[in-house]
Write a structure and sequence with these properties.
Rossmann fold, 5-stranded parallel sheet
């Protein structure tokens, strides 16, 4: 196989994964969009967390809400729990890395807020701790996962929303995660601006 063949296969595999994901994920993405919009309209906030590429996705999502996505509208309350290195390293050093998001949710989270918990494997220990803390505080969880949801799938309550990419390859899961984030941002904007009901 040539390098150009490998590149073309990446495109094809990505497109195929997205088509498959659309069938199972469109309805839960709609539910998550409506839940987040209701939270924001009520004066709540959306917090996001994840590790590695998922940390970058958390920051991307929060930036699109706080600043803007594709249309002009007032800033929306969103916080990426992955950005404050002093907070992250002090918690990891003084307690344990599993608590880096949970302690922030304890301090900042309020009932009615939403947590976007991102984990490609569904097994990230610090994201799992974040979910436990969110539940204890009456915070809805929108879990963005892959690989059948891992351990996170079993933690979610009937009030939570699971956005699980039907794939096992990390690169494909992350590509669908980014598309999902853009779907959430677009849908929130459309609802906030009254373009759809």
């Amino acid at each position: 196989m040539s390098l150009i063949d490998r590149i073309q296969r990446q495109f094809t595999d990505s497109a195929d994964t997205k088509r498959t994901a659309m069938a199972t994920m469109a309805a839960p993405i709609e539910s998550a969009t409506r839940r987040m919009t209701a939270c924001l309209r009520a004066g709540g906030k959306v917090m996001a967390c994840g590790n590695g590429g998922s940390a970058a996705d958390s920051q991307h999502f929060a930036a699109e809400l706080l600043n803007r996505f594709e249309k002009e509208r007032p800033p929306l309350a969103a916080v990426a729990l992955t950005t404050d290195t002093s907070t992250l390293t002090s918690i990891a050093n003084d307690y344990r890395y599993e608590d880096v998001f949970a302690k922030q949710i304890q301090a900042l989270g309020k009932p009615g807020d939403v947590l976007l918990a991102i984990s490609t494997s569904g097994n990230s220990p610090n994201v799992i701790e974040a979910i436990h803390t969110a539940h204890a505080k009456g915070i809805c969880v929108v879990a963005l996962t892959g690989k059948q949801g891992g351990k996170i799938a079993a933690l979610l309550s009937s009030d939570d929303i699971h956005l699980c990419v039907p794939a096992d390859r990390t690169a494909r899961i992350q590509e669908v995660h980014l598309l999902t984030i853009h779907c959430l941002c677009d849908g929130i904007d459309a609802l906030i601006l009254g373009e759809i009901q």
